[in-house]
Write a structure and sequence with these properties.
Layout lengths: L2 E7 L2 E7 L5 E5 L2 E6 L7 E10 L2 E10 L4 E6 L2 E7 L3
Antiparallel strand pairs: 1-2, 2-3, 3-4, 5-6, 6-7, 7-8
């Protein structure tokens, strides 16, 4: 069963999904930006760079550790979300 975590940053909607096949996906405004298949190395890592205002870039990163279920999302290096997902 796909799990999803929604969050807002400024005026944009983001979603992190853990797909049925174990892939980690990052969506921006309902558009898939990055997908990382499940592998042996941890954490799984997806990212996107988005310009929110004129020349104002925001780097959104998500890391997921399948062994513990920990999910962490950072924007410009600052934590904005930490959750636990069931495997």
């Amino acid at each position: 069963m796909t799990q999803a975590v929604d969050f807002q940053h400024r005026h944009k909607s983001f979603q992190i999904r853990l797909a049925d096949d174990g892939a980690l996906e990052l969506y921006l405004d309902n558009c898939l930006r990055k997908r990382r298949p499940r592998g042996e190395r941890e954490p799984q890592y997806v990212w996107t760079n988005v310009e929110l205002e004129w020349e104002e870039h925001h780097y959104v990163e998500a890391r997921y550790w399948a062994s513990t279920g920990a999910l962490r999302v950072d924007v410009n290096g600052e934590p904005v979300l930490e959750r636990h997902l069931s495997a």
